[in-house]
Amino acid sequence: AAAVLAGIYLVMVELRQGREISTVEMIHKRIITNIEHDSKAYGENISDTLAKACANTQTLTGSEQTQLHYYFQNKMRFVFYAYAEAELGSFGDGIGSVQNWQGRSLSYVNDVLSYPVGKRWLETNTFWQDKKIAQTDPKVAWVQSLKGIPPYGSSCDQRKKLVIPSVS
Q1: CA Rg value for the chain
Q2: Residues 27-48: tens digit of each pLDDT
Q3: pTM above 0.90?
């Protein structure tokens, strides 16, 4: 009788984990589908627009601004992706790198905050800047806690150092 009860319990645990994994998989698929769809707005080669976003933001065209909007939006979607992987379901419990969604998200947020227009985009975004949402959404609260400072420094500044020789 004890073996049958133990077996039933293990089957129930397996079913719960399967449901959790399926839910996370559906959420991930939805996020990735949105990212793939929106990446068509900026194409495979956004490097000229990103370089211009560092060097001369006043000359960005409407098309380039649209490209940057979707680029930044997609970077922030990866924050949702990392959060969903870490927080939904109990199957990832105890796996440190999976549960550290903030650490995994730093590079994505840094990619946005590294550009002056990215900082402005994040500061004026109706979702990411909303203080009320931050009270109930840990992702938004965490992004707001960065205070617009790129976690790893500005990639624009690093690029300028690479191409503009310093005078000592």
Answers
A1: 21
A2: 878 888 888 888 888 877 888 8
A3: no
